[in-house]
Amino acid sequence: MSGSDPAVNAQLVSEIEMEADESATEAGALALARAKTSQGDLSGAAAVLERYLLIDKEAVEPRAEYAVLLCRLDDVAGGQFEGAKLAGKAPGSDALDRAKAACGGVADVPDDAEMAGEQ
Predict the structure, then answer these.
(1) How many C-beta neighbours within 10 Å does residue 10 have?
(2) How does the average pLDDT of the chain come out, rounded?
(3) Half-sphere exposure (CA, 13 Å, Cβ side) for 92?
(4) Per-residue pLDDT at 3
(5) Which residues 6+ apart lie within 8 Å of 85 measured at CB?
(6) How many domains does the chain have?
(7) Residues 6+ apart with CB under 8 A from 99
């Protein structure tokens, strides 16, 4: 016998499904992440944005918030890497500036030509 309470498990599943539905749009993901951040749940906020970025890899604001959260969670390398992705998508943007400020810059990521060995 596992000792887990089926009612508690059902409640957890329900909460997870509701959260997934709420964060299915960019605005919803940002709102949920900000709510979790204001409650002190930085890991939860980062997870919400990470899931959303799997759906929309080009999203600028969620990526900026994700980078900031990673740096606040002491994953500076991860935050700088996300910032480098922003630099390619939204150079000179406020979103990029926020990520740079939170992470002390962005990672130096080679562009596609450099990765292919072209110079």
Answers:
(1) 10
(2) 88
(3) 0
(4) 55
(5) 63, 109
(6) 1
(7) 63, 64, 67, 68, 71, 79, 82, 83, 86, 106
> In this predicted structure, what is the pLDDT of residue 91?
92
For 77, the 3-state DSSP assignment is helix
pTM of the full predicted structure?
Answer: 0.81
Q: Give the separation between CA 82 and CA 96, rounded to whole angstroms.
A: 10
Question: Measured over all CA atoms, what is the biggest interatomic distance in the chain, rounded to whole angstroms?
Answer: 62
Nearest Cα to 68, choosing from 86, 51, 54?
Answer: 86
- Asked, for residue 109, whether it belongs to a domain, the answer is yes
Range of the domain at 69: 6-115
Tens-place pLDDT, residues 72-95: 999 999 999 999 999 999 999 999
Contact 61, 30 (CB under 8 A): yes
